[in-house]
């Protein structure tokens, strides 16, 4: 039995690995993420990203337990199991487990305890676990059908506003000039630029920070950020309602959008109101993956695919 744990947080923007010994991180590595397990070729893309991270972290003679929280695993459980089985072929992997990155985000934020967690990064998903271990998931449907208020959604809305201004179909916005500058292309080249990228959602999400920064001086950008915050609040409130947990519910937010500041967080907090008991996230999804790798007693265990 090995004490080494290799925890992986595989999102649509990035893939991070953390090698830990007795709970302490010894090494970490990052690589670009993958479109998601529910996408065509999602398992192969995920396995490639994970393999790259493991190559950077694990010596040839190292044995470890591998735990992966992957985007799209909840929407495509068969793909999650297929990924887990493929990962057993990695040298040194004594045990393999795969679950949704929403599950690892919940475990990392609340330490496996009941409550609601909003994971807001490239995508957006809220999860709830009650005292009996019942799991509720809201949104996380991907950039085409959902992820409302997430980074890709904000980026796309900003780019749409830029093109509307370019066409004269919408109000003037500084996002038009900022989009051309950010992507180093003419506005009329944006569709081709995004369409040819292997992960368009990731590319669009990178514009979210630009939209958030512009919100201080640009009414169009401010309206997008307010709409994003309200959409995320609606996701949290729907999760609470569907879970049946009586308010105020323990709540934490995690993910890259936490750093977008007041333009997003103020409308989000106002929309949630007093339905939650706000807590600072204990850790991120990578910490949740490390926790679930060694603790099979949490309420989230039924959502984990384990192969030993």
UniProtKB/TrEMBL annotation:
The organism's superkingdom is given as: Bacteria
The family database entries (Gene3D superfamilies) matched by this protein are listed as: 3.30.420.40
Q: Where is the ATPase BadF/BadG/BcrA/BcrD type domain?
A: 8-293
UniProt keywords (A-Z) are: Kinase, Transferase
GO molecular function terms listed in the Swiss-Prot or TrEMBL record: kinase activity
Q: Does the keyword Transmembrane apply?
A: no
Record-linked InterPro entries: ATPase_BadF, ATPase_NBD, Euk-type_GlcNAc_Kinase
**What is this protein's record name?**
N-acetylglucosamine kinase-like BadF-type ATPase
Q: Write down the species.
A: Nocardia tenerifensis
């Amino acid at each position: 039995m090995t004490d080494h744990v290799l925890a992986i947080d595989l999102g649509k923007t990035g893939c991070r690995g953390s090698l830990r010994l007795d709970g302490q991180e010894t090494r970490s590595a990052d690589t670009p993420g993958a479109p998601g397990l529910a996408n065509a070729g999602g398992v192969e893309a995920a396995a490639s990203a994970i393999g790259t991270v493991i190559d950077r972290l694990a010596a040839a003679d190292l044995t470890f337990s591998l735990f992966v929280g992957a985007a799209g695993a909840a929407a495509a459980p068969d793909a999650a199991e297929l990924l887990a089985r493929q990962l057993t072929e990695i040298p040194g992997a004594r045990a393999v487990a795969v679950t949704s990155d929403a599950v690892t985000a919940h475990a990392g934020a609340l330490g496996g305890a009941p409550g609601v967690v909003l994971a807001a990064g490239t995508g957006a998903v809220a999860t709830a676990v009650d005292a009996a271990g019942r799991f509720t998931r809201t949104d996380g449907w991907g950039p085409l059908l959902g992820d409302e208020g997430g980074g890709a959604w904000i980026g796309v809305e900003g780019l749409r506003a830029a093109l509307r201004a370019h066409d004269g179909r919408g109000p003037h916005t500084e996002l038009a000039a900022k989009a051309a500058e950010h992507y180093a292309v003419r506005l009329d080249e944006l569709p081709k630029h995004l369409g040819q990228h292997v992960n368009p959602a990731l590319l669009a999400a990178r514009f979210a920070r630009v939209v958030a920064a512009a919100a201080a001086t640009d009414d169009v950008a401010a309206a997008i950020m307010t709409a994003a915050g309200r959409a995320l609040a609606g996701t949290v409130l729907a999760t609470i309602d569907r879970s049946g947990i009586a308010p105020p519910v323990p709540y934490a937010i995690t993910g890259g959008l936490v750093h977008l500041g007041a333009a997003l967080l103020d409308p989000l907090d106002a929309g949630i109101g007093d339905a939650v008991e706000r807590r600072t996230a204990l850790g991120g999804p990578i910490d949740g993956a490390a926790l679930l790798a060694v603790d099979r007693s949490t309420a989230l265990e039924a959502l984990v695919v384990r192969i030993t």
